[in-house]
Amino acid sequence: MKNHRALYIGKSGQLAVMAEFLLRGYNVAIPEIDVGDDIFVVRDDSGELSRIQVKSTVARRRGGDSPVFSAQFNVGVAQLAEERRPELHFVFAARCDGHWSEFLVIPRDRLQEHYAAGEVGTYDGHGKVKLLLRISQQDVACRGFSLQRYRVDPWVHWPPILGRAA
Q: Would you say residue 163 lies in a domain?
C-alpha cells in the first residue's frame, strides 16, 4: 500500500496544477474513474480537451549558495507507451524549499522518444521508469540530458484565455 505522505503529496501537486489551469481560464475536472488521466482540461469556448497526468514529489536540496535539488518521479512503462487522442501530457510538479516552484510539462510522445533514445529515465524492472531530475536555476536535467525546454514555458499549450487569466 502506498504511504499516506505520498498520497497527500500527490493530491496537493494535482491541485496545484489544476489551480494553474484555472488561473489561465480553463475548466478542469477530475475523472470519476482513474484510468491514467488525473485531470481533464477543457477550453469551454471550443470544447478542446487535454488529458493530464500529474506526477508530484518533494525535491531534496543538494546545493549551497546556488541551490540544486533532486526530484524523483516514477512513470508506468505501459502508460508511457500508450498512444491515445488527445495526447496525454505529463506534468512533473516538484515542491522545492516549501512551495510548488517547478513544473515541467512534457507530452507523452516526446517523453517516450527521450526514453527510447536513452536520454532520460531508468527502467526499474517492475514496470516503472524512474526519472531522477537535477534541478538548478540554470537547468533541469535527467541523466545529464537537459529538459529545460519543458520548463521555460511549461504551459505553452494552454495560453491564457483573454479576459480570464490573472
A: no
